[in-house]
Amino acid sequence: MSTPRKKAIRFQGQVITVYSIGYLAHNAKRSTDTVRRWERKGILPDPLFKIPNSNLRWYTATEIYGYTRIFLNANVRTKIPIGQTTFKLQAIQFRLELKKRLDSGELKLPASLVHEKEADQDIKTKIKNRWKKEADSIITDL
Questions:
Q1: The sheet that has 59-60: what strands, in order across it?
Q2: Would you say residue 27 lies in a domain?
Q3: Which structural domain, as residue segments, surrounds residue 41?
Q4: Cβ contact 5:127 at 8 Å
Q5: Do 93 and 69 contact (CB within 8 A), yes or no?
Q6: Contact, 55 vs 61, CB < 8 A?
Q7: Domain total for the chain?
Q8: Around 71, how many Cα atoms within 13 Å sit in the side-chain half-sphere?
Q9: 8: helix, coil or strand?
Q10: Does some domain include residue 56?
Q11: 48 lies in some domain
């Protein structure tokens, strides 16, 4: 698990926070590799924002909430491939509607994730625990 990043950007006269793929993966309770695979296969649409000179995928809080909710509603489970669920169609419809509402000015993006601090702490704890587990495994193998 890589450390998720966030960045403040200016959009339509307001400052909003955008989040790396790690936040989306955390909310969906999947690995970043899994979410990247969904992107490569076209199951997950491109994020709204592409920041110049950056290879990172930057998602708004609205996208993270929306895709996570769609993921849960589509009843995606480990034994059922995501491509066999309604996730892809709903995610594409959500992305198109979100873009339409943003372009028309009908929708204002939230400045940040509501539970951002809790997510940050949870992610840090998981990374720390993973590092401990890896170190313990190496020491055990010595």
A1: 6-11, 14-19, 59-60
A2: yes
A3: 6-114
A4: no
A5: no
A6: no
A7: 1
A8: 21
A9: strand
A10: yes
A11: yes
Q: pTM value?
A: 0.73
CA distance 103 to 97: 10
Residue 129, in any domain of the structure: no
Each of the 142 residues of the chain gets a pLDDT tens digit; together they read 567 788 888 887 888 888 888 888 888 888 889 888 888 888 899 888 876 676 777 888 888 888 888 888 887 766 777 878 888 898 999 899 888 888 888 777 776 665 666 666 666 565 556 555 655 555 566 4
Domain with residue 60: its CATH number is: 1.10.1660.10
- Please give the Cα distance from 87 to 8 (Å, whole number): 29
**DSSP per-residue string spanning 11-44:** ETTEEEEEE-HHHHHHHHTS-HHHHHHHHHTTSS
| SS3 state at 73 | helix
CA distances from 99 to 12, 76, 102, 106 (A): 13, 25, 5, 10
H or E element that contains 9: strand 6-11
Q: How far apart are CA 28 and CA 76, in angstroms?
A: 10
